[in-house]
Amino acid sequence: MSTLPKVAWIGLGIMGSPMSENLVKAGYDVTGYTLERDKLDRLSAAGGTAASSVAEAVRDADVIVTMVPASPQVEAVAYGPDGILENARRGALLIDMSSITPQTSLDLAAAAKDKGVRVLDAPVSGGEAGAIEAVLSIMVGGDQADFDEAKPLFEALGKTIVRCGPHGSGQTVKAANQLIVAVNIQACAEAVVFLEKSGVDLAAALDVLGGGLAGSTVLARKKDNFLSRDFRPGFRIDLHHKDMGIVTDAARTVGAALPVGAVVAQLVASLRAQGDGGLDHSALLRAVERLSGAQV
Question: How many CB atoms lie within 10 A of CB 8?
């Protein structure tokens, strides 16, 4: 019998499926629920257990992990008679790994406390590749004791695992992460168009840029997307649009100016409005190409 906690995993999308499978590989008993039957079948094939509802998934769980797209989905699975808080056992630990507003995390922690459920907000960075390779960066908000208890589980999912402060802190740091990533992708996209229009060997240029001060994880991860124009989603423009809304709203609340971030947020929004919301966020390159006169 395993001494590891029993895990319920809610949300088996691009990130949730490989993350839950990594817990199975690490020896955890994982019961999952999501809306797509094929994703449940995938978890079962990997050694997990498929549940028919949120309530069924969480009923006997020691740890409940949610990985869903945005605040409305977190609220949908957390609240109500069929939700997590009404069906989880007292003392369970709810870890929300979605990227949502800090206020949603604060509200969830307060509501869960009334039900005897502990909460951590623990959004991640690293994209699909980081999820598959279990090298995610995990930024956590919540009580130190709960973080310490969850640390072994986090170590099966990521490499950089940091408690950033009380409830909501993880989401605040994730918002800053998404700001940096979006601005970095935009800068890379502009450089790619500039290099190509100048007649430079793009692959060679990106190699040498990656080895200098211009190098970044973003450039390393997205270089092949730029070179091949392969924009199959690792992280969709639609989701980055949501995240840019979170960071601009949160920054306004605390009185922080985001002059460059605001421009990039509008570029992300325009790309989405042109029908590219389902593409990877490296498709910001398409927006720069259009602005530069290309027919995309």
Answer: 29
